[in-house]
């Protein structure tokens, strides 16, 4: 049997509707400027900023509070080079025939291909791992729940925190990503979930001129 958790009083500060409306609109305006960046400057910045953002991500809710995530910060240029080489092998196969034509047609508008220089150019890579299970002190496995959902929420908070800190990001998911476990020496209990290059945009960085769906297209009020 599991011991019952100890509860404490919730600390919640209620604010006025006017403040709520202002805060929510300001936050929307802030996030509206976030874009996926593929052209990074090599300019460095303190790693403590990354650490703070990962701490923010770790506040995410998770199934049974299992917190089934692990974040690896990669700064070493040799490791970044290894990741790029391995990722480009998978990407060559993806663009060279593994991906269905419809998928490639949808990607054409963004001008992407197998070449992934941002994996070396960005001063940091954050590799997110999902944890299928934890390991007890006696070596047995302890199951985690809603792993993909929990890690997805944490990743969203991480991207938001990085943007709020003044950094540019990209979500990169070469498939398959098993090479990350080998290069970063992660245990079998973990599965690569996402690579996030982090840094500043290059001076001449460009992004596609795209539009988001309207509120009516993404939300129904009943």
Secondary structure blueprint with pairings:
Blueprint lengths: L16 H16 L14 H11 L11 E6 L2 H22 L2 H7 L10 H4 L2 E8 L1 E3 L5 E3 L3 H18 L3 E2 L8 H6 L6 E10 L15 H4 L4
Antiparallel strand pairs: 1-2, 2-6, 3-4, 5-6
Helix pairs in contact: 2-6
Largest sheet: number of strands, sense, barrel closure = 4 strands, antiparallel
What's the total helix number? 8
Compute the number of strand runs: 6
What's the helix-strand series?
A: HHEHHHEEEHEHEH
Shape: globular
The secondary-structure class comes to alpha+beta
Radius of gyration: 20 Å
Q: Uncertain regions: pLDDT < 50 for 5+ in a row?
A: none
Mean pLDDT: 95
Beta-strand content estimate: 5-15%
Distance between termini? 42 Å
Q: What is the helix content? A: 25-40%
> Order of strands in the sheet with the most strands?
1-2-6-5
Pick out its properties.
alpha+beta; 4-stranded antiparallel sheet; 222 residues; 6 strands
In short:
The protein has 222 residues and is of the alpha+beta class.
Note down, in words, how this protein is organized.
The protein has 222 residues and is α+β, with helices and mostly antiparallel strands. It contains eight helices and six strands. A four-stranded antiparallel sheet has the order 1-2-6-5. Strands 3-4 form a two-stranded antiparallel sheet. Strand 3 (133-135) and strand 4 form a beta hairpin. It is globular and about 55 Å long.
